Amino acid sequence: MAWAYLARVAEPPCAAVIALVDAIGPVDAASAIRRRSVPDGFGAVLPATAARHDADCATADLDAAAAVGARLVTRSDAEWPAWSLLALSQADTAARGGAPLALWVRGPARLDELVTDSVALIGSRAASPYGAHVTGLLAAGLAGEGFTVISGGAFGVDGAAHKAVVRSGGVTAAVMACGIDRDYPAAHSALLGEIARTGAVISEYPPGTTAARHRFLTRNRLVASLSGGTVVVEAGRRSGAANTAAWARKLGRPLGAVPGPVTSATSVGCHRMIADGLAVLVSDVASVVALVRPDGGGDVGRGRTKPTDGLSEDELRVHDAIPARGGVTIEEIAFAAGLEIGAARTALARLEVGGLVENVAGQWRLASG
Amino acid sequence: MAWAYLARVAEPPCAAVIALVDAIGPVDAASAIRRRSVPDGFGAVLPATAARHDADCATADLDAAAAVGARLVTRSDAEWPAWSLLALSQADTAARGGAPLALWVRGPARLDELVTDSVALIGSRAASPYGAHVTGLLAAGLAGEGFTVISGGAFGVDGAAHKAVVRSGGVTAAVMACGIDRDYPAAHSALLGEIARTGAVISEYPPGTTAARHRFLTRNRLVASLSGGTVVVEAGRRSGAANTAAWARKLGRPLGAVPGPVTSATSVGCHRMIADGLAVLVSDVASVVALVRPDGGGDVGRGRTKPTDGLSEDELRVHDAIPARGGVTIEEIAFAAGLEIGAARTALARLEVGGLVENVAGQWRLASG
User: Fold this and answer.
1) Is the Cβ pair B340, A133 closer than 8 Å?
2) How is chain A split into domains, by residue range?
3) Interface predicted TM-score (ipTM)
């Protein structure tokens, strides 16, 4: 009851309330706020809670949450994703939206498990058919690799991501700018129900809260912080996705962007992020996995745990220049690899010693093993 | 006559012959090679010229060139693009293809003027419709900015680049892997004629030389070195364009790559170059100009010589968030810019002082001036 009261008494995020709770516990904090009498040093709590301190909706909020199968997860709960949210508490980020006090969660997924291997797929609400298609490919592929796909439940890229994961039987989480009992947008009512059935619909805002512009910005920081990395699939010149992307960078999380046709307005933001060195170009599931798991830990990353590991640039090019079936001459290899004959010969010799290629009747082919 | 003899007597590029010419001049060099008697220290010339030293085709070559309106431009000529080719003579590149001794040039363009503002547009022979379209946009746009567009005269991206420049009345140069009198590919015969009418068809190989695989690799270094920068518009996983791109990097020239749909096989090479940090993502004429003229010198580069020069990131975002017509509230601006209200207010104040925005009846708009 105290947590539910505290979760509504100030517009989240409110660092002052969190500091008070950390100092004297939620029950005493709720009581102090109600009585308008807080310990020395916590004076900032009073103006932040002035408007709502005497409207206690705790019971109603918990009932409303229960009615849609949701629960309140707090900073004191075992499943609290403290590690993911840690960066939000750091000095330079806290000023623009610190860690949340609590999160309303609708769905069976545990927050700490949800964030363990997670990627945010975000982008334009007005996604192009290309953007929606690529979002679906990435979302289903990442779900297949065991990742939680996190997004914002909106039209466009968000919706395409959630839908593809739901269809593929994976886990997806929608972080909302409104209460977990408000289906926003309304047309996503059924989709949000599906997400909540196996994953999680998450919000920092109490039940009944309506989506408002400033809440999207506040919500964006949660999308970025709950995810191991963020990928912008499509974004126009002034997309809101740029804000989530900026949060990912501020929090030190990997940021990727998917390229598209340079003739497409919905790829302009992605291209700019890549060209400006803010985002890494990602083009498929493997490159996203490599982005968020730079130390490996998967067998999807490019070249990782492959027999071609550790090859030099020339050797890789020569290896790539040999077709999967059949043999080719050294001249054909040198040409395809863009190497001088001598360099190709050196690389072939090393690859042969390494057992990767073999010479059969004067033609080079990939080793049958 | 001596230069024409020397241009054929060894398969180009031949550093030994160039060294001899530099030491004793072309007439004595030709004579020494014919007599098989070279000065001490130039012994490498003999094996390189063994096969062709007694077949003097100089007259025939000059006649064949003249027949197609071509001339032989040598290292001693005023129009020799010595500065562009300098990097080819440096130790680490010379081993894989040094500077040329001479170039056969068909067309009115002077080589030194041709290379002054030049960009190579290269890519897959099997360009997609998207690739051909974007190539045309870039080529015509660069020609309109006064750039020479250099390519290899091949099908696909090369052809689309040349064609767009010819149509737009600009100057384009095709660097060939065969003699300037061989129309290769044959289907580009008319196009090569058009290129030669206003620009240049260029080759290091004597008239009559047929295209051969190793000559494409050798030719690629000339495309890269004659250009102020190279842009790969489309390239598959094993495109020959990767070789030209590698030359551009080796020569210290800017390298750009155009992104495309991640679902397109002909963009895989471009995406890989960008993701690996080998190429800069370029998406339009302005970004190509910015690539090859990093110090400015044009008014096309992004933001260059614009009133928004020198703005901070926040100020730019706020400026971008204000529509071209009509006013918006600070809340709308903060949302579109992905900024807190306070940060947006600070940026607006600075923009107002700078005369870029104005506040009319509580709404912000771009300054009418």
Assistant:
1) no
2) 1-55, 57-292, 313-366
3) 0.78
